[in-house]
Amino acid sequence: MKGQNKLFIAIIVALILGVGIGGLVHVKYPESAEPFSKNIKLLGTVFIRLVQMIIAPLVFTTLVVGIAKMSDIKMIGRVGTKAMLWFISASLISLFIGLVLVNWLEPGHVTKLPIQDAASAEELLKSSKGFSMEDFVKHVIPKSIFEAFATNEVLQIVVFSIMFGVALANMGEEYAQPIIKLFDIVAHAILKMVGYIMWFAPFGVLGAIAAVVATNGFEIFKVYAIYLRDFFFALAILWLVLLLVGYLILGNRLFELLRRIKEPLLIAFSTTSSEAVFPKLVEELERFGCNNRVVSFILPLGYSFNLDGSMMYMTFASIFIAQIYGIEMSVGQQITMLLVLMLTSKGIAGVPRASLVIIVATCSMFGIPPEGIALILPIDHFCDMGRSMTNVLGNALATSAVSKWEGQLENHGGDL
């Protein structure tokens, strides 16, 4: 938690320094703005490349472990099926709300930034005109998993990971367990690397912000205020939808649930990590009356497959970056992006800023400059507070709803 706060402070300091340096160049040395921007932006490029370096192994290991562990569904039967139906529905609704609101509110249209990499724009135009079913199949199904890893083709890695995970789940515990354990350790090691890489984020922020301010002046700061306002408005809509569904299933007991989980919600908000509240959430859900077996199965699964706040943020942030760079995406491309995010986000644990890795991968896939992520990084901490809290609410509702459907939600409350 202390480390998180230090990183937050470091990013804020880098943001202020970046603004100061960029503003100085923009006002005093306008003729040097372009070469200055080109050079200092390399800091941002280093950060983006560090993030891109871990995308393929992170998606592969977390997804294989998540799918392989789903062999528990055979034991729990109906509970697992109902849980997955909830997760898929909630994820699609979250992504869809983010997509609709970012298109309606258009927070990225306040200002336009030039696309530094012209080749990526040409590629996007080419692919949008010449898109065919054959291209789609080739893009989805890998010819070689090593080629998919080398080129960071996330969707192809997802297809292979799902098939590999299902195969492991059906091999029996004796054979599958050592491999699952190995991948689990690798996944945790890579998530540890995410923590290390995030410490380079202040330099990436300094480079990106200084370059943007030097070229565009102070107009860019209108974007931050509007982005935060629109994102929290979108989160409020998602909360309304989740609470409405919760009320339809739980009735007046929804208010008791909210009273019980208020502390986990607060911890998630302040630490920006939904995983930090996991033990407390298990305890409170059991006190609420949820069956212990249902809680122990659904909650861990939900932390990989049911991150409603993060899901909504992914569509919101990806389309926002496209808007900032003036890239127009067709309805078809946006729906494809929604489905891609639906797949690629599964298995990514609810650690702080893990969703940024997926956003970078998705932006690259759709020809949106991935360096745009560095522009929203200074305020990502505030967004992370909201989405972590939403993740906790979504998982608490999922567990309570499935317990109710199974007729295993006790009315007593208060006993473990």
From TrEMBL:
It is a multi-pass membrane protein. Keywords: Cell membrane, Membrane, Transmembrane, Transmembrane helix, Transport. This is Na+/H+-dicarboxylate symporter. Its main location: membrane. It is found in: Cell membrane. The keyword NADP does not apply. It holds the Pfam family SDF. The chain crosses the membrane at residues 7-27, 47-71, 83-105, 154-172, 193-214, 226-250, 319-344, 356-379. InterPro entries: Na-dicarboxylate_symporter, Na:dicarbo_symporter_sf.
